Amino acid sequence: MRPNHNSLFCLLCAALAMLTGCVAPRSAVSTPAAGCQSRTAGLATAGFGGSVSEDDAFWETDSGKQIKLGDLNGRVRVISMFYATCQGVCVITRQDMQEIEASLSPAARERVGFVLVTLDPTRDTAQALRAYRSAEGLSPARWTLLRGDNAATGKLAALLGIVSGRDDSGRFVHSSELVVVDESGRIIYRHSGLRADLHDIASEVGSATLLKPNF
Question: Which domain holds residue 100?
Fold first, then answer.
């Protein structure tokens, strides 16, 4: 008998949730993409080589401004998805991004932006994202926090190669990606896995700032 892949995926989701301790109750979220990150290699499968600038969806910043991802062109960007109430590996993702930021030369840092997009737009209102920015000390000059509707959130997750799922108890898990896009929004590097090689990613980011943008 051939295995049921949906059942296997749900079992994997449940195992990851127990290992990470990152569980979102069914009543607290509105979409399957709202689970706490489980940074495991092999779940992310798609999206490399695409362009985030081709997304026509509007996103709300933590200041309440409506933008498109293409409006952020002009800088190399490091992008990931998270949610503000996660106390597990989402914290590691954000800390990794901050370490990459700190490791860049002053010249490179001026040409790099960091983007966090919530997977839980229902709870992560603009006000909640503002509070998160303040609590984590994320510079408005370099960090952009975004929320979108469920359709836009799911589409971006697919483009970035983030896979999410929900087990039978309503717990959510998803893969984690650190994605680098060039100044025109094209995906040029993506890290999948439990631990990022921050030196390698920082080198990729620094090298990208030296390239002529391809608009």
Answer: 5-208
Q: 122 with 149: CB under 8 angstroms? A: no
Is residue 213 assigned to a domain?
Answer: no
Domain total in the chain: 1
Report the distance separating Cα 133 and Cα 152, nearest Å: 22
* Domain of residue 31, CATH code: 3.40.30.10
| pLDDT by 10s per residue, the chain, length 215 | 444 444 444 444 443 443 333 433 322 222 223 334 343 333 333 344 689 999 899 999 999 999 999 999 999 999 999 889 887 778 888 998 998 899 888 988 889 999 999 988 988 999 999 999 999 999 999 999 999 999 999 999 999 988 766 557 655 666 778 899 999 999 998 888 656 577 778 787 878 877 655 44
The label of the residue with tokens 């932006």 reads 113
